[in-house]
Amino acid sequence: MPRGDIVLARTALGQPIVRRVWQVSDTEVHVAHEDYYVRWEQYKVDPWTFALERSNVFQHDEALFQALERAYARVRQKAGGAEAEMERLWKTARPYGG
């Protein structure tokens, strides 16, 4: 079972995030914030999770995450070419197979 896998994900607003997998279905991956996951490991308190479409969940790549965070900041600042850079970076992400 992939519970606990660390993944790179894209939110509805295009923001890159790193989360822990909680549950996987054919169409969605339910993810949790690291703090909630650790709390579950220590105290068995089920984490608050949210579902993302599988197409928005990728294998974790810290260097790519850092590049996406910088590009996302440029998008929020409305910098020229930032959206194209975000798209280019997202295309290099490897789909999550869990």
Keywords:
five-stranded antiparallel sheet; single chain; 28% strand; 98 residues; 5 strands; alpha+beta
The number of distinct β-strands equals 5
Structural class: alpha+beta
The main sheet orders its strands as 4-3-2-1-5
Largest sheet: 5 strands, antiparallel
Shape: elongated
Put simply, the count of helices is 3
| Overall helicity | 25-40%
Distance between the termini: 8 Å
SSE string, helices as H and strands as E: EEEHEEHH
Percentage of residues in DSSP E strands:
25-35%
Question: What ranges have pLDDT less than 50 throughout 5 or more consecutive residues?
Answer: none
Task: Supply the number of structural domains.
Answer: 1
The value of Rg in angstroms is 14 Å
As an assembly, this protein is single chain
Mean pLDDT: 95
How would you summarize what this structure contains?
The chain is an alpha+beta fold and 98 residues long. It contains 3 helices and 5 strands; from the N terminus they run E-E-E-H-E-E-H-H.
Descriptive overview:
With 98 residues, this protein is α+β, with helices and mostly antiparallel strands. The protein has one domain. The chain has helices at 34-43, 62-76, 82-92, and strands at residues 6-10, 16-24, 28-32, 49-53, 57-59. Helix 2 runs antiparallel to helix 3 (82-92). The model has no long low-confidence stretch (mean pLDDT 95).
Layout of helices and strands:
Elements: E1 6-10, E2 16-24, E3 28-32, H1 34-43, E4 49-53, E5 57-59, H2 62-76, H3 82-92
Helix pairs in contact: 2-3
